[in-house]
Amino acid sequence: MKTYRKILLAVDFADHLKVVVDRAQSLTELYQADLTVLHVVEYIPLSEPVYGSVLPLDIDLTEQLAQAARKRLHTITKRLNLPDTALRVEIGSPKSEIIRVAEESKADLIVLGSHGRHGIALLLGSTATSVLHHATCDVLAVKLKT
Ligand code: AMP
C-alpha cells in the first residue's frame, strides 16, 4: 500500500481552515509522516516602473503580511505540536509556490482545500485546479461545502 512520508499542507486562512488542517493531521498520524504547513503571501507591488510610483509610501507591505502570516501559521503548528521548522511562508503566486515548495521539500502528498477565499463559483478553485494539474506528487483537494 502507498504510504506518504512528507505531506505539504497549503493553507489560506479561509473559514474552512480547520477542516483541511484536521484532514492533513489525520493523514500525518496515519502515515507517521512529516508535515509542513505553507502559506503563500501574494506579492503586492507598491510601485510599477511603467506607471511610476503608485503609492507614496516607503514600506514593505508584503513583508509585513508575511510576518502576520507567520504568526497565524504558528498558532496552527503549535496546536499540531509541530516544530517551527514545519512552518513556511513564501511570497509569490500561490499556484507556483505550492508546486515549487512541494518539489523542493520532496513532498509526496499536497493537501489543500477544494476552494479558498475566492468562493465556490467553480467546482474547484483556481489554486486547487492548477496544483492538481502541475504537481508531480499526489494531491488531496479536501472537498469543502461552503
Ligand atoms: P482556491 O483554489 O484559490 O479557491 O484555493 C484552494 C485551496 O488552495 C485553499 O483551500 C488552500 O488550501 C490553498 N490555497 C489558496 N491560496 C493559498 C495561499 N495563498 N497559500 C497557501 N495555500 C493556498
TrEMBL record:
Domain named UspA: residues:
4-143
Give the subcellular location. Answer: Cytoplasm
Which Pfam family is one of those matched by this entry?
Usp
Coiled-coil region list: none
Q: Which residue ranges run through the membrane?
A: none
The highest taxon in the source lineage is Bacteria
Q: Which UniProt keywords apply?
A: Cytoplasm
| GO CC, one annotated term | cytoplasm
UniProt lists the family membership as follows: Belongs to the universal stress protein A family.
* Assembly and oligomerization: Homodimer.
What is the name listed in the Swiss-Prot or TrEMBL entry for this protein?
Answer: Universal stress protein
Query: Which species is the source of this protein?
Result: Candidatus Methylospira mobilis
